[in-house]
Amino acid sequence: MTRRSRSGRKLWDTLSKIATRNVRDAQRTVTRSAIRSAVKQGEAMSKAAQRVLSGVASPVPPPVSRGGGRWEEGSWGLGPLVQRRYRLFIPPGASASRPAPLLVLLHGCGQDSASFAACTRAAALARSAGCVVLMPEQSSQANAQRCWNWFRSPARVAAEASLLMAIVEHICEHRPVRPDSVFVLGLSAGGAMALTLGLRYPDRFVAVGSHSGAAPYSASNAAQAARVMHGKGQPDLHAARLQLAGRSPPPLLLLHGDADPVVAFDNALASAALWQQLLPQAPVPAPPRRVQRGQRRPYRVHGWSSEGRPYIRLVRIEGLAHAWSGGPSSQAFSDPSGPDALRIAWPFFMQCLAARAMPRRARKLAGLA
Hints:
The chain is α/β, with parallel strands linked by helices. The chain is 41% helix and 22% strand. It has helices at 3-54, 113-120, 122-129, 154-174, 189-200, 222-229, 237-244, 266-277, 341-357, 360-365; strands at 70-79, 82-90, 100-106, 132-136, 177-187, 207-211, 252-257, 284-291, 299-306, 309-317, 324-325, 334-335. α4 crosses α5.
């Protein structure tokens, strides 16, 4: 073999080795990329499967206590076969000798108590306001989307309301809670159920509230519920009066976005009208006012009083869709650009508590009349 041919063969061998190495490196890169893609796809599929199986749109780990106070978990109900889980936050300082007011928060469809705790930032409110927060949790067996069943038959609605009330009474009896200072506020389906509780148990709640919820006693099946949510139904005034049995409903707070495509704002108007019709004398309206804090969405406040006490407060949040106002962006059904819903609700609840304890003349002097 000539020198030239040996030199050419050596060059060919070198090029072949380089080509082989490049192919091997490329194959490794492709393989690693495929593995990463498969892992990511598997994680996404796992999260999607988790959402489907749990009925929770934005699953989160159980809440942990930071900055004082403690989270507890439990279950209670109408017996061993009819129970619901709940989460309870007890703020620093609450004890048997120093019981605190109780705020019951009812989540919406596609949520559980953990995701709703993250959505509402309930622990932060509880620490600053010094209240206990109770968050019952709907089971996926009772409703595949974890909705509270405000739109079922009267018997089914009554059973679920009784179940929730049993949990509330259990907490009032066994935790550092003032049983005469109980409030309930819910989102979407939880809002409709909160108002249902207020009409069924008006003596047990200082005030009730609904955030983006449908009008109560307005549907007895899914088809009717869909119409109501689109603003094409009205509450059953007769049914509400039967539940009250001559009692007055507790004061009402309504928070609702005027751009809600899921539950039309008309539901808030219908609920306010229902509460007005349930009094023997028409409540007195107050001049509306517009509020905006910083860069958050502005909102309009409409109020009515009865016998010198705050009776209805309707908060219309401009541009808000079907979402908890002021919640974190990481959660479904949450809008961080809105005003903080709990920071709006709690002062109204405290005003109702103070007004109830005052004689009528004192309420006038305090400017609550």
